[in-house]
Amino acid sequence: MATPKTIATKNPFALIQKVPSKWVGLKGTQPNGFLIFDTTNNGLRAGWINLHNTYFKRGRDTLKEIIPV
Questions:
Q1: Number of domains present in the structure of the chain
Q2: What is the DSSP secondary structure assignment for residue 34, as one 8-state letter?
Q3: How far is CA 52 from CA 1, 3, 8, 34, 45, in A?
Q4: Are residues 9 and 30 in contact, defined by beta-carbon separation less than 8 angstroms?
């Protein structure tokens, strides 16, 4: 579910990184590490890449397997 914070930062996956990767369209971060994107499409792209690389590639493909991580 979208929240005002995810809408304002164009970060629908609510990505947080203390040292942000060089994401396409990354404009900056908030003090808590919440990433800010230039467009929602770039935020979606980063979220999908993060899911793929962090979870799917390692065989975690259900919410039951992803949430605890």
A1: 1
A2: B
A3: 20, 23, 24, 19, 11
A4: yes
DSSP string, 7-30: HHTT-TT--B-SS----TTEEEE-
On the 0-12 / 13-18 / 19+ scale of CB atoms within 10 A, 68 is exposed
pLDDT in tens, 44-68: 999 999 999 989 999 998 888 888 7
Residues 6+ apart with CB under 8 A from 9: 30, 34, 35, 36, 37, 43
pTM of the model: 0.83
Expressed as residue numbers, the domain containing 32 is 4-66
The 10s digit of each residue's pLDDT in 3-45 is: 888 899 999 999 999 888 899 999 999 999 999 999 999 999 9
